[in-house]
Amino acid sequence: MKAVLIDDELNNLNNLRALLETYCPQIEVCSIAQSAEQGKAALYMHQPDLLFLDIQMPDQDGFSLLSSLTKYDFEVIFVTAYDQYAIQAMRFSAIDYLLKPVNIIELQAAVARAQKQRQLKVENKQVAHLMQWIEAQSRKEELQIALSTTQETRLVKTNEIIRCESSNNYTTFFLNDKTNLLVSKPIYEYDELLSDYGFLRCHQSHLVNQSFIRSWQKEYGDFLLLIDGTQVPISRGKREVVKKALRL
């Protein structure tokens, strides 16, 4: 896989290139750039399979660079310092990111996922969705979340999700059109991601959209009854959290 690296700090570029050469032999670094302008030229010249992109750069940031492109026929891995807004945007869009300093195991895992996705030879819908997410945030619109299954990346509005249920490191999303989506990420990631959008963690294995809660049943233990008839357990440790969230 051909890769382009964009970061305004030369030390960061050299370090990442060294890590890729040592631990990711399937990657050929064909160009590095220290600005968005140089990076855009490198993308057009080399037509890479993979882009490693810093977000915070002078003159033009990584998001602005992507929004200036007309198509996304490459995979993207962001390499950035911690930025809560940026990380939320990337997680909503199911895009890989690495925090500086780069962890070798996380780097190898991100590259492996990019390689698998690149084999499909399709336009990168996650990046297109990222641009839509940022624009929707500025207009305070209803947000979509990108859910990557083995077959597709499905864009789902948060108000279409009834509940989430975990099984080890997998999470199943139950939608109001009666479809289920199995995603290979643990539920705690979505708990953090969706907590600002009306979702409530009532149990270690369950996350529910409060808009779909019909009642709290107490006859045979504590359960939330949802409008689709599903009973979701409330764990003992979450009773007060649920009570406060539902104002009971």
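That was protein one. Protein two is written in the same sequence-then-structure order:
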Amino acid sequence: MFLSLEVRSYERENHNHHHDHTQLVLPIHGRMEIDVGGRGGCIDPSVAALVTPGAVHSQHTSADSRFLVLDCAPTAWETLQIERLARQIYVPIPPATRRLIEFAELVGNAQLSITASQLGPLMLSSLSPDAPRSCDPFEQLIARLRANPGANWSNDVMAQVASISMSQLHQRFRQAFDMSPQAWLTDVRIQEAQRWLRATSLPICEIALRAGFSDQASLTRAMQRVSATSPAAYRKTQKQSG
């Protein structure tokens, strides 16, 4: 069964075209404005897109955007159970899928060419098209925050995503976590940064930005306040214990 998985960058603009295989496009960095069969949408850290064989599509991306692309043969349609995803076209990315995207970015294309037959189906399965999804906009907000804490999440944006007022936003966070929205988000961002510190050798300044902090100093202050340690000290301790 034809199946490939690759990290790609696209030209800024690609006009109407089509191909004879199924393609799932998942975001790594940046965003893509895309139209699939006349249905416009946007691939960003919270949404992927699935293009079916023969579907005419066009896209526009920023120069530094990168995407994880899964290509598979039309005959894989039933085997991989992606018909429901294809009907949606624009598919929400749960935290499990985000972790797999990050893993794929870390291992690189050489390793992906070897592991595509295992990682590809796992990635499709992680999108969980048959899993019940919460109808509560606040719970959907929390899922999006956990999946992509590094995005520009102001309280205004949170309230809009959850379709509630600012006072209701604060009330829901107090009830659920006994914290303000930004305090809770900072904790999630610290956890994200610590995961990158443990799993990668990326520069701390880059990890800080990926996790949603303005710079390395901001991450350092947050970690020292919460756990009385710096990013560098945390990374050193984790490597020694590993």
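The chain has a mean pLDDT of 85. Keep this in mind for the problem set.
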